[in-house]
Amino acid sequence: MDWFDTITHTFFDFKAMADVMPQLLAIGLLNTLIISLASTVIGVVLGMIVAVMGISPSKWLRIPARIYTDLFRGLPAILTILLIGQGFARLSQSVFGPSPYPLGIIALSLIASAYIGEIFRAGIMSVDNGQIEACRALGMSYTKAMALVVIPQGIRRVLPALVNQFISIVKDSSLVYFLGLMVGERELFRVGQDAAVLSGNLSPLVMAGVFYLIITVPLTHLVNYFDNRFRTGRRRAAPPISGLNEVKELSAASPLTNGSNT
What CATH number labels 34-182+220-235? Predict the structure, then answer.
């Protein structure tokens, strides 16, 4: 059973897992959530701007939005993170100090905004054109109709896709470690990797993976739940109409219903 002992020692060393648990909770999990949530919020704001530009009647807005989307969707995430994290490091030091933490958030936000912009654009375009025409018939401007009627409906339709994008951001946050985060800024992957090097086995990385699953798996099921709700809707039985049976009985007894003449 040497193979069993090898696998157990390499991946399931519970002592090594217990030793790294406080760091994963206090440092890794906290920083992963901060990076992911901050990138998502900024990505949603930028993504909405890109989406509105992408559906604008003006080509001067549509073309830059298309270029932006193609650029950040076409590049690998790690390449974008390295280009921004290292290319703007000197400028970042004068604003944020020596920490590359903010640049990692900015890079993830730009990547996320390209995908979220497409999600919003698809949701907005799925709203029937009659909504805009009805708003214009009521005297509303195009901007007001989009802001008050069309965009809210489009956002509601793409909520499952937005949660899916947040899951992707949580996983991509592990790539920020390439920028060389400080000890107190390490996310789950970097904490697990450092502990794995010190302990000589991969159990701390397995533990880090468990934390990622704790975040992503419930969100995945939540996406499926909301997706089913939005697709099928809540089906409720129609309430019984008071006196319906009496009406049916009277109709059956009526001479007109029976076809007889009075």
Answer: 1.10.3720.10
